[in-house]
Amino acid sequence: MRATSRIASYILAVPIVTAVVVILVVIVFDRTGLGWWSHDAPRNIAEAAAMGRAAEVVRFLRFGDDPTRILPVRPQIAFPSTTYLTAFEGAVWSRSVQLLRLLEEEGLPLDDAMRGRLACLAVDLERANVAAYLAPAGEIRCEAGAAASEVTARTAAAENDH
Fold it and tell me: What are the phi and psi torsion angles at 148 (to 5°)?
């Protein structure tokens, strides 16, 4: 009878142990962003910035990513018509002044020309807090819609190249 009860214990333990292992694997993959269910994990620094994920932005910066490089982003991250952004533009999209500060501190500081271009983009996207940060004197000179059109034009150009 002892052998039978030992076998029964093993038979009952197998599904429980399997379930625990599966749960642990899911947790590990979820935390690392490697799971098949983590479709919303940012694929690059521009996506991370557009999603407002500061920790991911820092991770990409530490791996040497350039916040000024134009990178592809999934249509659901910004707008369907905008699938190529820099990390700085992504930060404008996410409405995050803190993320812009982080990019400047950890990545590289913005020069006046870039700051002005991003301020115009913020105005076009109706991100008043971001525009105020980028142009603290309040002086923003740009043609309405031009900065957003420039960013959107990249998508059209890329689609024509394919």
Answer: -65, -40
Task: Please report, for residues 11, 55, 127, 141, the alpha-carbon distance to residue 120 in angstroms, rounded to integers and kept in the order given.
Answer: 67, 26, 10, 7
What is the pLDDT confidence band of residue 95, given thresholds at 50, 70 and 90?
Answer: very high
pTM, two decimal places? 0.73
User: What are 2-21's pLDDT values in tens digits?
Assistant: 767 778 777 877 778 777 77
Distances, alpha carbon 51 to alpha carbons 1, 84, 85, in Å: 61, 14, 12
- Alpha carbons 100 and 29: distance in angstroms, whole number: 29
What confidence tens digit (pLDDT) does each residue in 24-63 have? 776 666 555 555 555 578 999 999 999 999 999 999 999 9
Q: Please spell the DSSP secondary structure of the chain, one letter per residue.
A: -HHHHHHHHHHHHHHHHHHHHHHHHHHHHHHHT-STT-TTS-SSHHHHHHTT-HHHHHHHHHTT--TTS-EE--TTTSBTTB-EE-HHHHHHHTT-HHHHHHIIIII-PPPHHHHHHHHHHHHHTT-HHHHHHH-TT------TTHHHHHHHHHHHHHHHH-
